[in-house]
């Protein structure tokens, strides 16, 4: 293979290193350290292997724009509090696995049945991910290859449904997900989705309504679980309804997977035909999906649908990170963490109620809280998101049941405690944080007060730093 003429040879690198010694000998210890750092930068900039066309230049020199964005994102996360319910802060081990050499490997197929050579270690990683996930969720069969929760749901639909089949799911405004049949999503375009909602009085699922709709429409699959539903779901009741109309039951546990893994939330695997989820959110892993099947025949259909049906090569670096996160979730410390997630969520909900905010459904059984800011403060979710962002608190505007505002405006905001709990915040910090949020939202048009809140948030963040090794890059 020809050598890139612009690449520094080993001899050139050696010459640079000799220059280091000369500089060091000519300076005091303090100046020597400066000289060493200067030469390190030169070597880092220039050192590219002379034997192959792969740069070994560190990112900070190879692509300053991307490196700059990463550093700024680190600063944003370090100096602000993440309250988006679907976000978390992964461990260094998860991050290292996802950024590993497995990003190079193509491994179409499944362990011991690959369409490419050189997959021995890929098999090790995928088998570890499968075995750990089975143990974690008490699941008989699991596919860890879906690239996302949405593709996991797609995998289930395409394994058992035909175009135009009738389905029944939780509506988006009641706390469901786009892939539960929203018309703008593939699920609502390919399949005929009917929807159940929540009671106007309790803002919780009305199981009588679910049964009535199931009997009326005779769906082939019933979908439950959601992205902004803060209460326990009666999976046994859903299975009873599904059996009555001879439908499959799919539980989307993307949001609650970490709580389920810790034994702090009812496990849908006992009741559903299929369970889908993501490895981020409460599970605190990389961004990815998985599908649990509760019998072998269904598991075979899922495997064929994922590959070669809707995906090609699996993302082996992500599967490696999934395996790491499953191992972390099997540790007793993870149970303690999830208990704190719940304690923080309940504390946050109670503090908002104490301050006369309208909390949808009156509280929470999970990691998330849905707040009606329009009826509470006379502002939209969009305004709340913007104001809190200025105060270094990240949330997302969110529709609420029977919302009169558009999805880009909304009447509500969704809050979650996984990321701030990972960071180390506990009940007393949550009370302090709710005070800051209330101060900013009450004075949403007062920049001076919002800036003052931002400084208080910065001070709180410094008590709970993250990723020290990144800050030293």
From TrEMBL:
It is an enzyme of class 2 (transferase). The modification N6-(pyridoxal phosphate)lysine is found at residue 281. It is found in: Cytoplasm. Catalyzes the reversible interconversion of serine and glycine with tetrahydrofolate (THF) serving as the one-carbon carrier. This reaction serves as the major source of one-carbon groups required for the biosynthesis of purines, thymidylate, methionine, and other important biomolecules. Also exhibits THF-independent aldolase activity toward beta-hydroxyamino acids, producing glycine and aldehydes, via a retro-aldol mechanism. Its cofactor is pyridoxal 5'-phosphate. GO terms for biological process: glycine biosynthetic process from serine; methylation; tetrahydrofolate interconversion. GO terms for molecular function: glycine hydroxymethyltransferase activity; methyltransferase activity; pyridoxal phosphate binding. Homodimer. PANTHER family: SERINE HYDROXYMETHYLTRANSFERASE, SERINE HYDROXYMETHYLTRANSFERASE 1. This is Serine hydroxymethyltransferase. InterPro entries: PyrdxlP-dep_Trfase, PyrdxlP-dep_Trfase_major, PyrdxlP-dep_Trfase_small, Ser_HO-MeTrfase, Ser_HO-MeTrfase-like, Ser_HO-MeTrfase_PLP_BS, SHMT-like_dom. Residues 60-437 form the Serine hydroxymethyltransferase-like domain. Belongs to the SHMT family.
